[in-house]
Task: inverse folding
């Protein structure tokens, strides 16, 4: 099995987390929603697999390139 770290593309606040640890996801599925500059942006899964770990929660502020989730595939 391989590991994929999913990173925040920008500075912002996590509004919603769409998955939980242990969930099976497909490439392109939404992982969470981040608000930046008054716009909502989805962070999508880059690969299909299982959410091994979530590193964010709603209302948490993240920096660009912070890891938001770890996917095992």
Result:
């Amino acid at each position: 099995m391989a590991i994929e770290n999913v990173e925040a593309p920008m500075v912002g606040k996590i509004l919603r987390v769409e998955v939980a640890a242990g969930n099976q996801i497909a490439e392109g599925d939404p992982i969470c929603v981040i608000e930046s500059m008054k716009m909502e942006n989805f962070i999508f899964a880059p690969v299909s697999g299982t959410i091994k770990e979530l590193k964010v929660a709603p209302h948490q502020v993240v920096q660009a390139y912070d890891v938001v989730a770890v996917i095992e595939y």
In short: The first strand starts at residue 3 and ends at 7. Strands lie at 3-7, 12-17, 24-25, 30-36, 39-44, 49-54, 61-62, 67-72. The chain has one domain: 3-72. Residues 3-72 form a domain with the OB fold (Dihydrolipoamide Acetyltransferase, E2P) fold (CATH 2.40.50.100).
